[in-house]
Write a structure and sequence with these properties.
Blueprint: E1 4-10, H1 18-25, E2 27-36, H2 37-41, E3 49-54, E4 59-62, E5 78-85, E6 90-97, E7 100-108, E8 111-117, H3 129-141, E9 153-161, H4 183-192
Antiparallel strand pairs: 1-4, 1-5, 2-9, 3-4, 3-9, 5-6, 6-7, 7-8
Length: about 190
């Protein structure tokens, strides 16, 4: 059985700024409770929950597939929005540096539906999106997800959408797949086929 996870990786430990970050993303976090990393990464959460792992160098927010942002271009940090579904053979990555979107890829059942921007360093070695996403998360947080102790501490928050989100810094160039459809709608379409 493979990974089925989605979320956002950031190259800074956001422990003291998690509520501010959530506001930028259009969320309100409440009711924090401790969990372990294994629980955070297993994708067994409700749609209104967000699991956060604060690493030494970076942060991972694990979000429901339909809640996570397709892109998250934030100033002064590097971010990776990602979705991995090995069981459905669907992968999505969106990589940004200092508020600029650099790379976006969406692949479902081996078919690239989106492939935009400058190729990442790992792409010189492989075209496998699973490996590329895992490597990019490692680059951002300073450790391999597979090497994080399953008993390390994480936090589960209740998650509400807010209307008055703080503005995100966006890139000059947008990389849409379809202006009328979110990437997971493609995914759901592929699942039904």
């Amino acid at each position: 059985m493979g990974y089925n996870i989605s979320g956002l990786a950031i190259n800074q430990n956001m422990h003291g700024r998690i509520y501010e970050l959530a506001t930028h993303l259009g969320f309100k976090l409440s009711a924090p409770r401790p969990i372990d990393f294994k629980s955070a990464a297993d994708n067994n959460r409700q749609a209104n929950e967000c699991d956060v792992y604060f690493g030494k160098q970076g942060t991972i927010l694990f979000l429901d597939m339909e809640r996570y942002a397709e892109t998250c271009a934030l100033p002064h940090v590097n971010t990776l929005c990602f979705a991995l579904s090995e069981t459905q053979k669907a992968y999505h990555l969106n990589y940004c540096e200092d508020g600029k979107e650099l790379r976006a890829v969406l692949e479902i059942n081996g078919k690239r539906l989106q492939d935009s921007g400058k190729r990442l360093a790992k792409e010189k070695e492989t075209d496998e999106l699973y490996d590329i996403i895992c490597h990019q998360i490692e680059t951002l947080i300073g450790q391999r997800v597979q090497d994080i102790d399953p008993t390390d501490k994480a936090v589960r928050f209740q998650l509400d959408t807010i209307e008055n989100r703080l503005p995100l810094v966006s890139s000059d160039e947008t990389l849409p797949i379809d202006e009328n459809r979110k990437w997971w709608e493609f995914w759901k379409m592929e699942q039904k086929a």
